[in-house]
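Dear Dr. L.,

I hope this message finds you well. Following up on our conversation about the binding site, I have prepared a predicted three-dimensional model of the protein together with zinc ion. For your records, I am including the exact sequence and ligand specification that went into the calculation, followed by the structure tokens. Please feel free to forward this to your student if that is useful.
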Amino acid sequence: MVDRWRVLAAALATRSRRFGTRAQLERHQQRRLQHVLNRARRVYPFYAAAGTSLADFPVLDKATWLRHFDGLNDRGLDLAQCLAAARAAEADRSFEATLKGVSIGLSSGTSGQQGVFLTTPAEQARWAGVMLAKALPSLREPARVALVLRSGGPLYQAVHGGRITFCYVDLALPPDAIAERLQAFAPTVLAAPPQVLDDLAARRSSVSRPDLAPHTIYSIADVLDDDVASRVASGFGCPARQIYQATEGFLGISCEHGILHLNEDLVHVEREVIDQSSGRFTPVITDLYRTTQAIIRYRLNDVLLPGVPDCPCGSAFATVARVEGRADDVLWLPDQAGATRPLFADFVRNAVLAAPGVHDFRLVQRLDGSLGLAVRPSNAQASAHRALQRLLRSRGFAEPAISGRPWPVESSIDKRRRVRRER
Ligand SMILES: [Zn+2]
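The resulting structure of the complex is given below.
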């Protein structure tokens, strides 16, 4: 159980920290970075011989970070014992693996290696407080917050009771059961993955007096496509904001203008630009507050499209036009000159979903470079196929072999990924 006072203290501290200018924000980041790096050399064996500035610390991808897991936590825990404990807790859906006073969580639903993330109760309380401060319109007003999640999060455990009431709904339940529970709870704030919001918006438009009428809606845990965002906004009559969160950290949240901002008060973000013309980048993050485990120059597997330079909300935090999902969601294709270039998932999404008759699709780039396309309904296959060919041609790509494939089996827990590269 998390200490409510710690949650409140973190919430109030977050609300009271104001950064009027980018320079003020950068001073705060530099102070925190110095603290994080000094401590890192002292407590994490992996960094014992590291230099004094951020550039002296290596950029780590997830695989490398996991390989050095033992030297990157301050408890001397090793990866095998943590994995075993976490998997046992997942298997019985208790989600409460702890070792040496530290909770062990697995990163969810991604392909490839599962990440293992360690947090103390104090860190969880801090996270919950920060989340409340950033996500709730007011800390004084009563709120009924519903979360549709893959597993019970620390936020739910942290702040039950008081003016803020929580309802946690398991994402693994069938859609009817999720809708029923939410209707019974009648949340003022609803946070759910985009596919759940989409389903709820459709149900809501089909009844004359809907019970489910939250005033604030957050899309969590997956990429929010423009088409889903507009269906949710019209179904509920309020915009779908985004919470950009990963097990690696609480990375961003939309402001009241619906613009996604990076949480640069919590996380220092370096940009590895992968496309000069659009500025698309892969974020390399350093968490400024986490203590049990080092997240220092950790490369996320996401692609971000930078947003407007100045948001009307006045925040000094950088804006993001779109989170395009994992770097695996980028196709790499030869162009007509023979050079390999990226094709970003949102281009494919926009082109194929705009094709006549296409409701949904899944595209995979196979290891041999060919493309496999599954389409719903299946009689729109040719239409989707033509749209994809037109897109490739218009962007100067040599056309790879494209073939139809059956719709893949996806569990409700699986993240929906329309575009994916096998690797
Ligand atoms: Zn803003």
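In brief: The domain at 1-327 is CATH 3.40.50.12780 (Rossmann fold).

With kind regards,
A. P.
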